[in-house]
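thread from #wetlab-drylab

HS: before we spend reagent money on co-crystallization trials with magnesium ion, can we at least see a predicted complex? here's what I'd submit
DV: go for it
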Amino acid sequence: MTTNELLAVTAGKFSTWYGRPHTVAAYAPGRIEVIGNHTDYNEGYVLSAAINMGVCFLAAPSPDSTCRLVAGDLMEEVAFDMHRVQRDPDTMWANYIKGVFAKLIPHVKNGKGWHGLFFSTVPLGAGLSSSAALEMSAALGLCGLYGIERPPLELALIGQAAEHEYAGTKCGVMDQISSLFGKEGHLVKSDFRTLKVETTPIGSNFCFLVVGTNAKHALVDGAYNERRASCETAAAWFAGKLDHPVKALRDVSMDEWLQYKDQMPALAAKRAAHVIGENERVLAGAEALQRGDIKHFGFLMFESHHSSIVNFENSCPELDFVVDQSRRIPGILGARLSGGGFGGSAVLLAHPQDVASIAQALSGPYLKKFGHPCTVHTIIPSNGARIL
Ligand code: ADP
Ligand code: MG
């Protein structure tokens, strides 16, 4: 579905539900993580992209302080007063938008609420960040409705705060930044220390496949906490050793790691190798794209996955199978796990004309091996969030 088609469908739902047209329309896409795994909370770098699937959020002013919000896929409504915005565990989907609105209220001058409705083409929980797309479409739409002007980075942080405070997800800000700053035919390179964001061209001759493993592995929370703690241990260890300041693993180079790895606690050394390597792969990957060296870029993706297996130990048999197959299937230029790991999705790099044959070559063997299908989405790096 194109963005215009999505707008038309959403506008139809809005006027049917509310009996009048919307006055403001906003769109925000989901995102993929291309290289840079577990680097954000280590103040490092990520290469990501906004995708060709997103959320359309429409709104019109309310006659009083009431806010009404409709999830256009579910055709379910939540109503609340703008002076009493609260999270509600029974309607999780509304919390993302309530959380965004709560942060915008100080800028609202007229004491009037809004009527809103959103409709999405981003699959939920598929590693494509449907939640950030929801937040950023609402942030832009509500800013448009009230004439609020805030810098995009502030909107990204508002989305992150909504995840933390209203949805209960302690995420970084990569998803929101990618949704806002994405550009057609480009990847987004973010620096999570300075929050500096750049785009790097990849061109229309390349796309990604996101392969969802539909695998659920236990102990994910515990494993995630261990990874974060090990990264902090490693950073503290280097801070006591190196003669330059180390605030996070971002400050440690691979040369320094190689020099000291045998002296440090073994587990912390392994975890650090992944983060330090990922940071260097993001920078090398951006450089490779600048010189049009897609082969090297794909190689870095495979390296990233290898590091997940041996260093960070955040892969699983399903992800390893997909990446392993990817090394053999013609047309796949690179593949790695994407996101937290321990299940979830892998991201593959390919030419658009090879997508159908790749999807076919992966799906059958995956089903045969695991007894359940994988899901394959074709991802085209696309423009970021905007008012329509
Ligand atoms: P993702 O990786 O897709 O962001 P999350 O668990 O962070 O996964 O967010 C998914 C949640 O966001 C859903 O469970 C739901 O509460 C909300 N959400 C996202 N998109 C929609 C939608 N189109 N309709 C209703 N709720 C949605
Ligand atoms: Mg999310």
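DV: The longest strand covers residues 45-61.
HS: ok that's useful, forwarding to the group
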